[in-house]
Fold this protein.
Amino acid sequence: MNMSKGIDPRGPRVGASITAVLLAAVVLLGASTAGLWLLTFIMLSFLLGTLRGSEGSWQGLLFKKFIRPRLGPPAEMEDRRPPRFAQAVGLFVTAVGVILGFFGVLPAVPIAAAVAFVAAALNAVIGLCLGCELYLLMRRTGLVRA
Amino acid sequence: MLGQVIALVVLVLGTAALGVWWSARQGAVRAPRETPAGIDWVGSGVALADRVTFVQFSAEVCAACRSTSRVLGGLTGSSADVGHRELLVDDHLDLVRALGVLRTPTVLVVDGGGREVARMSGVVSDTQARQALNRVPTAVAEADGEGQS
């Protein structure tokens, strides 16, 4: 894998659509233990994507193994940092739901899943870029440092 | 279960509405914000072109900044009077605050005197960038004058 040339921009979007379906399932499961476990799994997936980059998550590997070989080359490659930032945002949102869930606040599970669903679905369908929308706000409020 | 199904339907419809609203705002040419008098562009390391400069605020984690940068860079190549300066928000947080910039990419269209005449945020298309250029009345008038002489 050649990191310097960037990643196929369709990879993170396919990954986001898989994640969005899973998050929708958490919303359907509601404030339940089953929903909590599924959200925990999604949170761990975001953790993998944050540590290894979107292309190193299991969704990214599925794209690379099964979908990419069936597609033509992308029009252009994309920097791997924006999708990785989005993975970190997903990790934060789902972690809040999971932690509250394990402390007995089960309604937080579908709510956190709903918030993450909005971002994942918009990323998958119209290419919403969380790094573009959130990074500067987080810098301005001091939530993240350079 | 019915409650959860309703919740999911509402969530999907809300997401779709948000997506339509977000897409419509991408790169739209808007009126300038009231900017504080006397932004020291040169002091901030921004050399202005004679007529109009696209001052673009970008971030490393911003995918849309790359394509916007290419579009604006292409426009400036065609005219020496049109400039494009790209600033990393991390290096210019004070400027970002003074100008009320909230997301990246945000592009300020600044005239030769340092005044903001329009701004755009989100992915900027070539058509939108040209629209923004037309907001600079002096540039248009001068260009016409030169054409006649």
